[in-house]
Design a protein that fits this description.
- By secondary structure, the protein is mostly helical.
- The protein has a single domain (2-51, 65-107), classed as Orthogonal Bundle (Helix Hairpins), CATH 1.10.287.
- Helix content is 70%, strand content 0%.
- Helix 1 packs antiparallel against helix 2 and helix 2 packs antiparallel against helix 3 (67-98).
- The protein is elongated, with a radius of gyration of 19 Å.
- The termini are far apart.
């Protein structure tokens, strides 16, 4: 199962980097979102995908789930949601101000 999750995280990273290299701002925003989802899967996979009892230490419980990867992923989800929201608002504002979403035209170097 870890192998499948690692391959899926790699595919998300690949698609995210591809979208980051595009010219349209909205594709760049989607690329950052895919990169963050790939990071979530990578953190989950690094924490080992095992099932067990809740992480409450009591006598008789030997196999319990590690709560650290879930806590890190939850924090990462909140941060990536905030960053994605900020980037969407920034892209909308840049489009309304400049009437374009092309990064080359926003930079002022229109070589096309």
């Amino acid at each position: 199962m870890e192998l499948i999750m690692s391959v899926l995280a790699g595919l998300l990273f690949t698609a995210g980097v591809y979208l980051l290299l595009q010219r349209q701002v909205l594709k760049i925003v989607f690329g950052t979102a895919l990169l963050s989802h790939g990071a979530h899967l990578l953190i989950l996979t690094m924490g080992k995908l095992n099932r067990g009892q809740p992480p409450i230490l009591e006598k008789g419980i030997e196999h319990y789930a590690d709560p650290l990867p879930q806590a890190l992923i939850l924090t990462s989800i909140v941060i990536s949601f905030g960053v994605t929201s900020f980037l969407l608002v920034l892209a909308y504002r840049a489009y309304k101000t400049n009437k374009t979403d092309n990064m080359e035209q926003l930079r002022g170097s229109d070589h096309d």
